[in-house]
Amino acid sequence: MNAAARRHSTFLLTALAFAAALLPLAAATLYFFNRERQLANEVSALESRLRELDAELAPIGHLEQLRGQMLSRKQVTEVLQQRQHGLHAALALTTQIPANARLVALDVDDTRLSLQLTNADAETAAKTLEQMTRAGFSEAAPITPDAAGNITLGARIDPARFPAATRAEATQ
Questions:
Q1: Pick from 82, 81, 83, 85: which is nearest to 157 by CA?
Q2: What share of the chain is helix, strand, coil (3-state, %, to 5)?
Q3: What is the CATH superfamily name and number for domain 87-171?
């Protein structure tokens, strides 16, 4: 072998060795770029799925506000469905007014009862006050007697003092 052929074969061997050294590097580079593209596609698919889920969950985001609205509606409904505690007892009391007196006005609110009687004397007023106390009202007392024979009787509504039947009706 002559020197030129040897030089050529050395160069060829060096080139082959260099190519053999670059081959794993090229394979690793191709694998890296391929894997990077796969991961980018997976990330894109996951981001798209997250956007879909966010769109589905948007109504649930207002759940606390919806819950508050429902609770306030429930409270209003409960208040509207509640009976006044003293109403039944007051109506029952009006049927027990003595014959010589006549009921002119009946006013029942959350805490007070007011009866206005005409042609009522002191004895009639005393009987009516006693009946008010037995019916479950507390602090029954005359409020305003007048010269025309009208007397206004008032009492505090005390649901704890109502007879059991009246309490049972009020809770139904």
A1: 85
A2: 65, 15, 20
A3: General secretion pathway protein M, EpsM (3.30.1360.100)
Q: Give the tens place of pLDDT for each residue, 119-143.
A: 777 787 888 888 888 777 777 777 7
Per the CB < 8 A criterion, the answer to whether 126 and 98 are in contact is: no
34-90 pLDDT, tens digit per residue, is 999 999 999 999 999 999 998 888 777 778 778 887 887 787 676 556 555 567 777
Q: Where are the domains of the chain?
A: 1-82, 87-171
**Residue 9 burial (C-beta neighbours within 10 Å; 0-12, 13-18, 19+):** exposed
What's the token pair of residue 42? 């997976």
The 8-class DSSP code of residue 2 comes to: -
